[in-house]
């Protein structure tokens, strides 16, 4: 199965399965809750609020992404990049998700001890971090490739664990 298809299925499943949470937890992506310098940048941006937006995210990923030497992620397709939701995608990819190994390891550690099911936006950001780690793994060589691959595996295991929890029947209290 193609990794992009798997990514779409994960996003779609989570969009359908995630419920609301009644208690406050530590934020996995603190950058999403910090006020931005530009008023055009949304606070706590989210991409997938409907099935159509999940499909749009898939289109963004299929359109090919470009990662500059300073780790700035952009959509190569100019038409897609001009869409309003592309601004949220750009903000999440460049200002919210971790892109350095220590930050990704910190996220993986937080995810492994996270109580309950991830919020929709945290799941979405973790999947985008996973896609970024997959990209960096593919570009790396030698020892760096092993480090990125381990980060990729840790994120995948955290997402799989979350999906298993969200699909198990809720026990009556």
Automatic annotation (TrEMBL):
Sorted alphabetically, the keyword list is: Signal
- Report whether Metal-binding shows up as a keyword of the record: no
Q: Which InterPro entries match?
A: FAM180
Lipid metabolism among keywords: no
- Transmembrane segment boundaries: none
Top-level taxon: Eukaryota
> What protein name does the entry list?
Family with sequence similarity 180 member A
Name the source organism. Sciurus vulgaris (Eurasian red squirrel)
Q: Which residues belong to the signal peptide in this entry?
A: 1-17
């Amino acid at each position: 199965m193609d990794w992009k298809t798997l990514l779409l299925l994960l996003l779609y499943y989570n969009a359908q399965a995630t419920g609301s949470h009644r208690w406050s937890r530590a934020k996995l992506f603190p950058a999403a809750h910090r006020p931005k310098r530009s008023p055009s940048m949304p606070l706590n941006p989210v991409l997938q609020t409907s099935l159509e937006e999940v499909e749009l995210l898939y289109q963004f990923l299929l359109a090919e992404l470009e990662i500059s030497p300073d780790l700035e992620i952009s959509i190569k397709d100019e038409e897609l990049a001009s869409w309003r939701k592309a601004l949220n995608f750009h903000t999440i990819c460049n200002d919210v998700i971790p892109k350095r190994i220590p930050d990704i390891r910190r996220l993986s550690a937080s995810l492994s001890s996270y109580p309950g099911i991830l919020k929709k936006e945290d799941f979405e950001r973790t999947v985008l971090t996973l896609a970024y780690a997959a990209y960096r793994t593919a570009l790396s060589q030698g020892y760096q490739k092993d480090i990125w691959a381990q980060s990729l595996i840790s994120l995948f295991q955290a997402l799989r664990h979350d999906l298993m929890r969200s699909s198990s029947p809720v026990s009556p209290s």
